[in-house]
Write the C-alpha cells for this entry.
Amino acid sequence: MLVPNTPTSAAAVARHYAELDAFYRELWGDHLHHGLWLSGHESIEEATSALASLAMDELHVSPGSSVVDVGCGYGATSRMLAARGANVTALSVTPEQLAYARSASKGGNPCYMLCDWLQNPLPDGAFDGVLAIESTEHMVDQSRCMHEMARVLRPGGRLVLCAWLSCDAPASLTKYLLLEPICREGRLAWMGTAADCVALLRDAGMLVERFDDLTPQVARTWSMAFRRLARAMLADPRYREALLDTALDSRVFALTVLRIRLAYAVGAMRYGMFVARKG
C-alpha cells in the first residue's frame, strides 16, 4: 500500500476539486472518472457513462432500491441511478460539485449531502447498495471507509467499488517519480494493490464476489485527457493563466496528467472494479 509523503485531508480534497472545478467539467464532462472503452471509438463522454453503467449493472439496481453514491462528484452517476428507479443518497465534500449536481437534477432524487464519508450520519443497515467510483482513494482511513460501507448496507446488500490501483510490486524509482507524486498532487490518501483492497473489504465483513482488472479498457482516458488539455492550453488563455498562477495549489495537476499516462504505459498503475456483498 502506497501512502504519499505529504498527508491529505477531506478539506484538501475539497479545495483541489474547487480550484479545478470549471476545468474538470470542461475536460471530462459531468462524469468525473475514467472512461471504459469497449469498441475503441467512444468519445470520453460515452466512455465515462459506460463505466458508470457497468458499475450500476453490478449493483443489481431495481425500482425502489436505496443506494448511496460515495463521492458523487457532479452527480451524473447518481442521476443515472435515479433514472433506473433507485432512491439515491449522494455525498461529496466539495460544495461546488454539489451546487452543480443540484442544478442538474430535478426533484428530491438524488438527495445530495455535503459530507465526509468518514463522518457520515447515515443509519445502519438502511441501503440496498453502495457505489464508490474513484472516491475511496481520497479517504485518509481506509479501514473506516470500508467499515462504514458495510455498516450502512442491509444484509445481502451490494457494494461496487472502482479504484485506482498500484501494481503489485512497483520499483523504487517508479514510486518516487510516478506513484507518490500522483498521490500527492491528486490529493490521494493512498494507492493500494488489488490484494490490499480485497483484504480491507473482507476485514469490514464484506464477501468479495469478484475483482475485474479493467486497466486495458480504461487507460486510454489519460491519452484523451492529455490531448484535450493540450488543445485547451493552446486555445483558451484561462488554462495558461491557471498554470502560471502560483496561488493555485492544484495547477500542478497538469503535470499529474502526464505522470498518470506514463504510469499506465509502464504498468505501474492498474484500475479495478470490486464487487462485494454484505453477509
